[in-house]
Amino acid sequence: MFFLLGSGSGSPLEARQTHRGDLAIIIILLACFAVILGIAFIIFMRIKNYYKSEQYLEKERNRKTKYKDIQKLTKENNLSQAEATILWDICRITQCNNILYSVKSNLEVNNLFRNAYNIMKEQNLLTEPKLNDFFTCLFKLEMIVAQTKKVLSTRQIAPGVMIFFISDSGEQYPFTVVQNQKDFFTAEVPEFIYTTPRRPKLLERSRFTFKTSDGLSYNLITRIIRYNEGNDGKIYMVLSHSEQLECQAQRHFKREFLDMECKFKAVKVNPNPQKGDQKYSFSDKEYDGKITNISAGGCCIQTTLPIKEKQHIGIILPDSGIEQTLVGIIRRTRRLPTGKLALHIQFIDIPLAAKNRIHILVYKYEL
Length: 367
Description:
Layout: H1 12-52, H2 54-62, H3 67-77, H4 81-94, H5 99-102, H6 106-122, H7 128-147, E1 162-166, E2 172-180, E3 184-189, H8 191-194, E4 205-211, E5 217-229, E6 235-240, E7 245-247, E8 256-269, E9 280-282, E10 287-295, E11 298-303, E12 312-316, E13 326-335, E14 341-349, H9 352-363
Antiparallel strand pairs: 1-2, 1-4, 2-3, 3-6, 4-5, 5-6, 5-7, 8-9, 8-10, 8-12, 10-11, 11-14, 12-13, 13-14
């Protein structure tokens, strides 16, 4: 059954008048609906523009961190629950401003964590497990910031950065960038490289690697245009700019380059230790070495001894606050231009307290 507007028993004239009245009501209703939609749209745009405005962003930057901010940061960057927990503790104890904006700069990140470390240390809140979570969270946030500032061209390499030439045999030789101009960049060449066949050949595609201040490592391919002797008597190489850069996979821990004396000894592994037996036994004979870089995951030791890869090694770090002998395995050896051998070592048995002492050493915190 169908019902028609204006139907009834009245005359055709009355029916037309009723029909016109109904149309007028519909038009008025549509006009009101359009006005409401227009008002709603204006309100929506004002709200949208407000959330994009500098006024809102400034308000968000300056408010204190809320737990929902930690949750958002955790979800977007795959932080562990332990890292999220320690980060929330850090934000609460320092009353820091919105962490979602604080991670835009590594300077802000490091200032925040150093401030929190000093407070938590003074209040005896730093257990060894919590201290480990503290440093792993700090390193992960540093990497988050670094990933947003990737180097796309050699034009972005700052003077003072050390770049390493990679030979065909995999050896690495250091050069220091001293100048970066529009059409080329210049690096100082150590004399012990320039005067030997090890120096990179002119105009050939050469491989280099370098590390940014934020901790990202890059491989790059470029060509050496020429060698020059400066007024200071030093040798410099001029390199063409390149966009052939490849960001390398990151380590799990921050690494610090240093020059620290150490001792090491041979280690014998007991593959099937019984109850009460030690898994590792150490030689009484100790050898002198020099640690050139270290992280909580491993280190590099320079020595004159011809030590082979895949051997276990015990490492003693005097004046570091670490009393234990750390056990590692030599993953790679590399002959240096000086004739010494570089041992790249991965720690395989390191107490949590020792790992934290290395974190503190790397980040230059106070014990």
